[in-house]
Amino acid sequence: MERRQARSGSPYEKTMGFSRAVRVGSTIAVSGTAPIWPDGRVDPDPAAQARRCWEIVVAALEELGATVADVVRTRQYVVSADVADDVGAVHGEVFGAVRPASTMVVVAGLLDPRWVVEVEADAVVRL
Prior knowledge:
Blueprint: E1 3-6, H1 11-16, E2 21-24, E3 27-33, H2 46-63, E4 71-78, H3 84-95, E5 101-106, E6 117-124
Parallel strand pairs: 4-5
Antiparallel strand pairs: 1-2, 2-3, 3-6, 4-6
Helix pairs in contact: 2-3
């Protein structure tokens, strides 16, 4: 099966040796995606961070021939339960009609202390 990769320009992709997303056959796995804007800025607002994460994920899916409707599972990692409602509401904006299997986990911390959320997604493209 053909293997295709999407890149987002994250500085970590090359140094850590990963792709934003990988498609093999009809399956796409999107790596942990953080709320970084192209200029390196991180908005402190949890909803804005979640929205940015999902924008990056959706762009990677589209690059590999998928849409939000193809997403079957999401994972959201938050640094505090206090941001869960804001982050979850953005998930609902993006996936409300799709309703993938989803998990939200509170973690001790993320790679950059400015991040309050990081997300992942898996998709299966309808052939």
